[in-house]
Write a structure and sequence with these properties.
The complex is a heterodimer. Chain A is mainly alpha-helical. Helix content of chain A is 77%, strand content 0%. Chain B is mainly alpha-helical. Chain B has one domain: Orthogonal Bundle (MetI-like fold), CATH 1.10.3720.10. Chain B has 10 helices and no strands. In chain B, helix 2 crosses helix 3 and helix 3 packs antiparallel against helix 4. The longest helix of chain B has 37 residues. Chain B is elongated and about 80 Å long. Classes of the chains: A mainly alpha, B mainly alpha. At the A-B interface, helix 1, helix 6, helix 7, helix 8 and helix 11 of A face helix 5, helix 8 and helix 10 of B.
């Protein structure tokens, strides 16, 4: 078992490396053929006040005067040593920016991920147990409608209802405006996090609920459930004894593979609520042409998604005895 | 009032069958098709026809809530929000359509190539699909929009490049399955040419799949287009796509101007939902077993 696990991790690590190399080569190539002049993007509105000499100095400072291949080699060798370069807009090492942003995004994404998983699972099971009744229709309708609702628009509605009309929550930002960093309490942070978290959880429910519903229906249609019903089992007990474990496993796996959508959702949610997280940094980097930060974020989000998928695989191995035994025999 | 009940029932049934509630799947699909196509034509044409001057600013009509003359209200420059919404939807739908169709074309080429051109090509394309799926869609979209230097082109390319992998996977699997099916094997033994098999056996199976796949990509494409323009990465404020209208409305939310955000977003939701439903219904017709319940 332990040896199998080690092998599994080594395999995944190797795959991640190959993936990261491919992504970095591709993204660097795309940036190098792009019509955007990074010096121009860096200068921005100060265009008229910057002389050609200063321009060259800036280009030399960021190493932009060399041919693309040489730049790539330099950037990539720095990357291998763990140096992602310096962010142009924050004037900080990219790794620091990402670390700082990730810690505030992590709480948002983590809580929403858990909430949407639990609520979605419960909704899916409830819908399947009440198949073709009003609860089922409601869940189905809700999921399909939610899947075609723009997340950011829902965020605008949230702000309108809960912040502007009812005044329950602040309009945006991660911390109260105009308050020194050391005066911000944990309560403030939590109050600012409630709306974004609620929105992100809501957006994630539909996939997991529909999937769980389908799996649960498959289970309910099976022979062993028919037999259990014939023995007189019903309702919640039937679900606990025959449904839960069969349905929970694929649901958990699915939930881990939604990291990609979770990240995308976080980008939109953070933008709507001006929440200082990774997503907002991504948008800013794209808007202001901060190439090092954008590349760093692309790589970081790739690692994030990959970890989700790898964890899903791992959990399958640990939890599902069929796959575990198959792996051991091999 | 005193009509017998069975006549009443028949009348209701007749109304229902016209509305498509009691009709079969095929009628329902056609009915939806009709409504959606009508919606598309109205919005597309409307957007193109309304362009000159009808969303002109009029400063004495600023910030009006919805009324009969302005069903969606007016904005801070006195522009009619209904006209702007139609224009925005029109632009968004055109971009979404271009993106979805290009994405579907890439998917068709890639999927077919993977299924028919040997192991090496298959491996490379499968790897490419995995590569594109390994970066979150929205991050990839932002990245591509940035690389293209913004504008409609960047958004459309971004949508095409982010939407092809899932459909390509479906088409590859489908083509592989048909290729190994018995009737194709027999056809091959009977000495039919590759071209004949491709045209007579594989294409008729794949064409509807491809069509429905494109149709199902379309709503996603519009949603992604709206997201990326909402984030401000695609278009300039002079090209009022629906995302731009919504992002502008953000500044006026705390002033209580709810109609700026509610109606454009709701229209977007309705359009996306309609096309999603249509795609779903068609999928059930084409591929009853694979359709989601």
């Amino acid at each position: 078992m332990i040896r199998g696990l080690g092998l599994f991790i080594a395999q995944k690590a190797f795959r991640l490396m190959a993936l990261l190399v491919a992504v970095s080569i591709l993204s660097f190539w795309l940036v190098s053929i792009s019509p955007i002049d990074p010096v121009q993007a860096y200068i921005g509105a100060d265009m008229l006040r910057v002389s050609p000499e200063q321009r060259e100095a800036i280009a030399a400072y960021w190493g932009l005067d060399q041919p693309p291949l040489q730049r790539f080699v330099r950037w990539f060798s720095a990357l291998v040593h763990g140096d992602l370069g310096t962010s142009m807009i924050y004037r900080q090492p990219v790794a620091d920016v990402i670390r700082e942003r990730f810690s505030s995004s992590f709480a948002l994404m983590g809580i929403s991920w858990l909430l949407s998983g639990i609520i979605g699972f419960a909704a899916g099971v409830a819908a399947a147990m009440n198949r073709n009744r009003w609860l089922d229709r409601l869940v189905k309708w809700y999921c399909y409608t939610l899947a075609s609702t723009p997340t950011f628009w829902l965020g605008l509605l949230f702000i309108m209802v809960f912040s502007v009309w009812l005044g329950w929550f602040p309009v945006g930002l991660g911390v109260p405006a105009g308050v020194l960093a050391e005066h911000v309490t944990l309560g403030d942070r939590i109050r600012h996090m409630i709306l974004p978290t609620a929105l992100l959880s809501l957006a994630g429910i539909s996939t997991i609920a529909l999937h769980t519903r389908q799996k649960m229906i498959d289970v309910l249609d099976s022979d062993y459930v028919l037999f259990a019903r014939a023995r007189g089992e019903k309702g919640f007990g039937l679900f606990i004894r025959h449904g839960l474990r069969n349905v929970a496993l694929p649901a958990i796996t699915l939930q881990f593979t939604t990291f990609s959508e979770l990240f995308g959702g976080a980008v939109l949610v953070e933008q709507v609520f001006s929440y200082p997280g990774l997503g907002q940094a991504t948008v800013e980097a794209g808007m202001k042409g901060d190439v090092p930060l954008l590349m760093g974020l692309v790589l970081c989000s790739t690692v994030f998604v990959f970890c989700g998928n790898a964890l899903a695989d791992l959990i399958y191995r640990v939890v599902d005895p069929r796959i575990r035994e198959g792996g051991m025999r091999r | 009032m005193n009509r017998p009940i069975h006549m009443e029932k028949r009348r209701i049934r007749a109304v229902h069958s016209i509305l498509g509630f009691q009709a079969g799947l095929r009628q329902r699909t056609l009915f939806l098709f009709l409504i959606t196509a009508l919606l598309l034509v109205v919005i597309g044409l409307g957007g193109a026809l309304l362009e000159p001057g009808s969303s002109a600013t009029s400063l004495h009509e600023r910030n009006l809530p919805p009324s009969f003359s302005h069903p969606f209200g007016t904005d801070w420059l006195g522009r009619d929000m209904f006209v702007r919404t139609i224009q925005g939807l029109s632009l968004s739908m055109r971009m979404g359509l271009t993106g979805a169709v290009s994405g579907a074309l890439i998917a068709a080429v890639m999927g077919l190539a993977a299924a028919t051109m040997g192991k090496t090509v298959d491996r490379i394309i499968t790897w490419l699909i995995d590569l594109f799926l390994s970066v979150p869609h929205l991050v990839l979209l932002i990245f591509i929009a940035f690389v293209c230097g913004g504008g409609i082109k960047g958004v459309v390319i971004g949508i095409a490049l982010t939407h092809w992998p899932s459909l390509a996977r479906v088409i590859r699997a489908e083509a592989l399955q048909i290729r190994s099916a018995e009737f194709v094997q027999i056809s091959r033994r009977l000495g039919k040419s590759r071209r004949w098999i491709a045209l007579r056996h594989i294409w008729p199976h794949l064409a509807p799949q491809l069509l429905v796949g494109t149709l199902l990509l379309f709503p996603h494409a519009i949603l992604h287009e709206a997201s990326i323009t909402f984030l401000g990465l695609g278009l300039s404020p002079h090209q009022p796509a629906i995302g731009i209208i919504l992002s502008e409305s953000m500044r006026y939310l705390s002033a209580g101007m709810w109609w700026l955000a509610v109606f454009p977003g709701l229209s977007l939701l309705i359009v996306v939902r309609a096309f999603d439903l249509l795609g779903d219904q068609l999928l059930q017709l084409v591929h009853p077993r694979h359709a989601r319940e």
